[in-house]
Amino acid sequence: MHSQLTIGLSKKCKLACSMPARLLSLLLAGFFAASAASSGAEATPAAGGKILTIAFMRPGPDPYYQDGQNGAVMAAPSLGAKVVTYFSNNSQSQELANVEDAISKQVDGILMYAVSLSAESADVAKANAAHVPIFLLYGYDKSLLPKVAGFEQVNLIEYGKEVGTWLAKHLAEGKVAIITGLLGRGDAEAYAEGFKNGLADNKQLTVVAQVPGDWNRQKAQHAAQDLITAHPDLKGLYVENEDMAIGAILALKRAGKLSQVKVVSCNGAPYGLEAIGNGEIQASNTCSPALEAVMGLRILTGVIGHTTESGHLYYSLTVFVTKDNIKDANPWVPDQTGIEKFLSLPLLKPVADSDLP
Amino acid sequence: MSPEKGGNNQLEAKNRPAQKEPHRTADRLRIDWTTYGTTVVLVVGIIITAIFQPVFLTVSNIANVLSQIAVLGILTMAQTIVLISGGIDLSVGSNVALSGVTAGLLFLHGVPLWVDCFAALGCATAIGLINGLLVAQNRAHPFIITLGMLTLLEGIAELVTGGSPVNDMGALATILGGTIFFGIPTAVVLLFIIVVLTALFLARTPLGRTAYAIGGNEEASYLSGIPIKRTKVYIYTLAGVISGIAALTLSGILNAAEANIGTGLELQSIAAAVIGGTPLIGGRGGAWRSLQGVLLLGVVSNSLNLMSVGANYQNIALGVIVLIAVMVQKNR
Amino acid sequence: MLKVENVSKQFPGVRALRSVSLEVNPGRVHALVGENGAGKSTLVKIISGAQPPDSGRIIFNGQVFEEYSPSYASAYGISVVYQRQQLVPMLSVAENILLGAQPRRTRFLIDRSATYRIAGDLLNRLRVKVDLRKRVAELTPALQQEIAIAKALYRQAKLIILDEPTAALGPKQIERLFELIRDLCSHGISILYISHHLEEIFRLADRITILRDGRLVTTQSTSDLTQSAVVNLMAGHDPQRVAEPAAIPAGMAEANSEVPMEALVAEEALLEIRGLTAGPVLRNVSLSVPPGQVVGLTGILGSGTHDIAQVLFGLMQPVSGEVLLEGTPFTARSPQEAIAQGVFLVPENPARDGVVAQLSIAQNISLVDLPSITRFGLLQLREEAQTAQKYVSVLRIAAPSIMREVSKLSGGNQQKVLLAKALQARARVLILEEPTQGVDVNAKEEIHRIVRELAATGKAVLVISTDIRDLLLFTDRMIVLREGQIVDDLSAEEADYTQVLNLTLGVGESE
């Protein structure tokens, strides 16, 4: 859960923490055949008359991926497609085996969260060789752009910046601190950088500390405890996801400082929205994995049907939420009406070539 | 008397009346200061931090540090017992996660809290028992057995929670997560009790003694009539029980249970024990020593946060300090 | 060839060597003797480069050692064959011999056929018959030792240091080793021979250096010395004290008189084995050990003596036959069960299988019977200490404190700790395997005395050893095994060394 907004390599941080477990699962992965499951309601054929089969691959058990998968499965029938799901168990070799399996089952396209950056180029090469379009959620790599149906992910810097801008406006003056996720993949760094850019709007605010929470609630709680001890007059705290934020809030609450410190975060997970509702988190930038996956599926089927151009980067829809507009957040776990709303939203606009990071 | 008296240790030893020494039984429960390394690094670390951040030595920060190390400290006691017996338990972290999640999910479904706590302890004990049985019955190294267990438990925890955290542990958050008297965190008191009990267990119980014996020389212990397999089963089971206590403490402190919350704790507990002076090869070590390692890790992380050291530098600093502590440690 | 000049070495609290000098001539066997702790191993460590001396120097073939490291010493041609082998058990014979210096096909590829060819030639020259592909772990200690010597030769050793080389060998193998040593000498290789076995030294060595308390006592030609003279020089006291060993310090003697051996144990025991068939060799063996007797059981390696111990201690299950303890059938499936029935085994290698080195003397002794010092689930450390103190006094275990880690004790004292364990286990039947192997002269006599005294309290004592001379010194009877069967059972008084030796080897009886 710590990694909902990462670049699709979300389990890497766990990899660092529990190498042994990862090693073992890596070893074991070779022994399991590709694990695929077919699900979803009856699809109605699209205009072309053929029902498309789309392979959806998720790397790990996190709810973020699970919810994305559910979104794609629910939306598929309306797009004239059915979704076959695969689970990569955080193993590159398992993921590659899944891609091969999907190709041999002659799927029309692949929609995936890749296990890691290094794995995705192999996946893309396999899919290209078999002329199967592949669309990647997260893991943007400019050099792969011509070879894929598209990339979709959050605009990392902007995502953090919106939080910073809000705090700059709603906090008159004082000390601000950041609890980051696990560094090393670029996402946690980008959020912090964006946040500081946004915060710069208000010269009365100073970032006094930036300490690690490693996407771990306990570690974030310790960090918050230490921050409030070192800076008893802290006014603002940006925690890079809501899971960690809840740990930090508990620490502030126990220190009797929650009323003094404005906590801001990002994610939009159900428990995060709850915390915004009861006023513990002041604001959060949200992004629904279900919507993200539905958009990805729409673009991919468009590419397959030659109605959408391939090879573009898209930025996921995000909604900045405070207590006043919680309803506006796109739900992680939508009902059928929610899915229909996702399907009726205008298709994402590709990022212009000149703006590509 | 020959003029070279005192030159040769062996002779000296022979001439010394032997019964003068042995009555120092009180020595056993005292902190073993033979591993000064960690202590020295710890003290130096405290002094440096106190200079740069005077707030470090405030009562509230000391309470923070102690409550921050409570879970790792309790877990390290479990690891210490296993390490002394010549084994290793990589599953303690995932045991904490699964046991915590067990309590959390039951509480979420309205089962009374005390039942949840016993269920969590039962779950943790069962895991320890299974570990013990597997280690005792198999020739495979406990490393690989408990590694398999780690992966298995992590998988189960993720499966039953669907990856979502349980964000309410009810009264547990105020009991184990709160303070008990004079603002002392309950978890700290619990840690202290567990450490004292572990020290007592290791120094004063037959099972604790046999843990040292089989960790020191399994063959000789077997030839002394010690039931090796049964001892191992007991030891891993005990480690399971302690992991369960750690799980409840963590759930209380976080007011939550999560499938991935134990990730990395197994290696931290091993590191803390070894840094403190409980070696990986078994037969030596103790509760107080291991606690020093836990304290060092806790103080370092706390002081780096207090001084607002960035994440990358925190890792580098932690690595350097751990290496220094191990190097300075007196070789025995 | 090797010159040691005024070498001194000091450890914290101990002056291990004080200005020791000696000279080893090419093609000669030079013996180094001294009690445990006299400084032999420190000297060997310095010569082999494992430790630098504090002062003094080592000159080898005219070259002064400038640096002290094992690789430096071995490059100059000094090799040590230790008591505990330094071979890699899981590698083959050939690989072990050439380890670290294998012939190579290319820079990274080892030439296997050349490895086997070279090793084969070398072993042929030494007349050692062994399958080159066998793992060293599967070989007897004797063969392992010969492999270690071959390894030294492959490295062009000019001086080979043998540390207690006969410790694990049977009589026949000792003869083989001696032949080998003489052969090496005839090729100009020098041997520094360290042993407690004086008769071996007198057969082999040209000159003897005696160390005591880290000092050089003397170096003399063997022909100028007698065994008893050497013993006196080693012990540094007059002959009477050797015969009546180990003067007890006042405090200890007092404690000793307070707790007589008889008070510790008074059980009577009778061990009877009937028609025992077990393991690969034992066939239909019957013997009995009456209470109060010390029975020696000897035979060459593989004769089945070790298997009898294994059966009695629950480490091996008999195929047929029975064991009776005071007339009641005895079966044990584990040491735990054997101990519970009053049988205790002191294994051959105390440091490896007998004691827990990290634990203290007291903790090692109590380990065998923790329930007796447990009250309300807690160990009574005071009681533990008192018990241990009692044994330390009675058995005269030399240690500054019962809290002393056993790893810091000498071999003889470790052996005594094991005997204390046997007493604490209230063993009625005591089995000792090679009890005096590798312990110094005084400790040997002490162990003889203790064993005799234990038997006098009514225990049945079975001593399994390949050291016939030693057995003859303190047993009542000698049972000789050959190829899994008893070939003779004679009273120790009527037995003599050559007769028993011949029996074990099966020599000269058929005529």
Question: What would you note in describing this structure?
Answer:
The complex is a heterotrimer of chains A (357), B (332) and C (511). Chain A has twelve helices and 13 strands. Chain A folds into two domains: 12-154 and 289-317 and 329-355, Response regulator (Rossmann fold), CATH 3.40.50.2300; 156-286, Rossmann fold (3-Layer(aba) Sandwich), CATH 3.40.50. Chain A has a seven-stranded mixed β-sheet, with helices on both faces. In chain A, strands 8-7-9-10-11-13 form a six-stranded mixed β-sheet, sandwiched between helices. By secondary structure, chain A is of the alpha/beta class. Chain B is an all-alpha fold and 332 residues long. Chain B has one domain (54-328): ABC transporter involved in vitamin B12 uptake, BtuC (Orthogonal Bundle), CATH 1.10.3470. In chain B, 69% of the residues lie in helices and 2% in strands. Chain B contains 14 helices and two strands, in the order αααααααββααααααα. Chain B has a two-stranded antiparallel ribbon. Residues 1-34 of chain B have low confidence and may be disordered. In chain C, strand 14 and strand 15 form a beta hairpin. Chain C has a six-stranded mixed β-sheet, sandwiched between helices. In chain C, strands 16-19-20-13-21-22 form a six-stranded mixed β-sheet, with helices on both faces. A four-stranded antiparallel β-sheet of chain C has the order 2-1-4-5, covered by helices on one side. The relative contact order of chain C is 0.11. Residues 238-269 of chain C have low confidence and may be disordered. Helices cover 36% and strands 24% of the residues of chain C. Chain C has 20 helices and 22 strands. The termini of chain C are far apart. Chain C is globular and about 70 Å long. The interface between B and C is large, with 44 and 57 residues.
